[in-house]
Amino acid sequence: MPITPDTKDWTWVLERACPECGFDATAVHIGDVGGFVRSNAGIWAEVLEREDVRQRPDDSTWSPLEYACHVRDVHGLFAQRLVLTMTQDGPTFPDWNQDEAAVEGRYGEQDPRQVSRDLTDAAFATAEAFDAVPDEAADRIGYRGDGAEFTIESLGRYYVHDIVHHAWDVTHAQD
Fold it and tell me: Quick one: what percent of the chain has pLDDT higher than 90?
């Protein structure tokens, strides 16, 4: 059964703590992003070993495997956005439809062991890319297709919230 697309604009997490997962992205600095990303990757390795990894908790929620595939792809997406912002003046990021990606990528049918390896590789590569951002570049600007403006630092904070929130989705939200 298809999932109802999430149409929320989550940019508000750049201004206040998330009431769902409790994470406060406002406290994340550009130099912290890589550490958060590496730490989060370890959570997914454990999640992908669960017996219920392919089971959706209900008709409107992704399975842990589908969330992990999404997070793997989020790592790549934010690496691309970081590169664009570092190499172009005021780029507009290509749109990405996470729900289309899930269907086209057949997230629920992927091999959890391979997803774990790919997610870890993508996380560490993106963490290294954020680690390499010089302090003077943290204020470089890029735009999402809807016009939302991000500095490299706010892009990193938004990214960290995304992966932390999804780890919460699969480890706490169903409790």
Answer: 82
CA distance 149 to 58: 34
CATH of the domain at 89: 1.20.120.450
pLDDT of residue 23 exceeding 80, the answer is: yes
C-alpha pair distances (Å), 121 with each of 3, 71, 88, 124: 27, 12, 25, 5
pLDDT in tens, 92-109: 999 888 888 988 999 999
Which tokens sit at 30? 């550009």
| Token pair for 59 | 């008709």
Angle between helices 152-171 and 64-87 (to 10 degrees): 180
What is the DSSP secondary-structure string of 19-63? TTT---GGG--GGGHHHHHHHHHHHHHHHTTSTTTT--SSTTS--
Residue numbers of the domain that contains 88: 33-171
Q: What is the tens place of the pLDDT at every residue in 41-89?
A: 999 999 999 999 999 998 889 999 999 999 999 999 999 999 999 999 9
The whole-angstrom separation of Cα 56 and Cα 27 is 32
Residue 114 located in a structural domain: yes
Strands 149-151 and 141-143: antiparallel
CA 60 – CA 82 distance, rounded (Å): 31
Is residue 155 domain-resident?
Answer: yes
